[in-house]
Amino acid sequence: MKMRTRNLLAVLAITLLFTACASEKQLEEIIQQSNEEETTTLEESTQPDEPVVALPGLPDDVAGYTQWLKLNAEPIPPAPGGDPHNGTKNVHVNQTRDTIAPNGIQQFPYPDGSIVVKEASRPGKDYVGLIAIMRKKAGADPDHNDWQFIEYVRNAPDAEFSVIAEGRSCWGCHAGVKDIDYVFTELD
Ligand code: HEC
C-alpha cells in the first residue's frame, strides 16, 4: 500500500513538473518538429537515384553498363596461356533477355543499336582496368556484321580510361565466332 502511494506521488510530481516546463505551445512545437523530421526522412528515402555517369574517359552511352543484362553467369577467368583481354571479366549488353533469347534460346544476330561491354580487372587488381566495347550500327561495317570494336585501359582505380586499340586489330579473333555474330560470350 505504501509503495503504491509513493508511485502515485511520483507520477503526480512528474506530471506537475512537465506541465510547468512545457506549456501547450511548447508541446505543439515539439510535436511539429518531430513531424517535420519524419517528413524529411520520408522525402530522403523517396529521392530518385543519382544519375548514372560513365567511368572517367569512357563514352556516355556505356554509363551504367553494370546494370545491363550480364551474359556470363560466373566471372570469366583469365584464359590460360595468354589472354587478349587479360583479367577476370564480365560481359554486359544493353538488351533484355526476352529480346536476345525469346523462348529461352539465344538468337543471332544482335539487333541494331546493341552495345556489348566487357570489363576486366587485371590479375591481382581489384578495379576495372580494361573496357572492351562492340557497338552495332547499321551500315557501319557490313563485312563484320556492322560491329564497331574499341578497347580502353587504365592503370589506377581513379585514372581516366584511354583508347588502346580498335577496328582491324580486333577482327582476327572475333571472326572466329562469326556464326554467333562475332560475340564469344553466349548468354548463360
Ligand atoms: C587474340 C584474340 C582476340 C583479340 C585480338 C580481341 N579479342 Fe575480344 N575477345 C576474345 C575472346 C576469346 C573473348 C571471350 C571472352 C574472354 O575470354 O575474354 C573476347 C571478348 C570480347 C568482348 C566481349 C564479347 C565477347 O565477344 O565475348 C568484347 C566487347 C571484345 N572482346 C572486344 C574486343 C576488341 C574491342 C578488340 C580489339 C581492340 C578485341 N576484342 C580483340 C578474343 C580476342
From TrEMBL:
InterPro entries: Cytochrome_P460 (IPR032033), Cytochrome_P460_sp (IPR038142). Keywords: Signal. The keyword Magnesium does not apply. Residues 1-23 form the signal peptide. Gene3D superfamilies: Cytochrome P460. Residues 63-185 form the Cytochrome P460 domain. This is Cytochrome P460 domain-containing protein. The lineage of its organism: Eukaryota, Metazoa, Porifera, Demospongiae, Heteroscleromorpha.
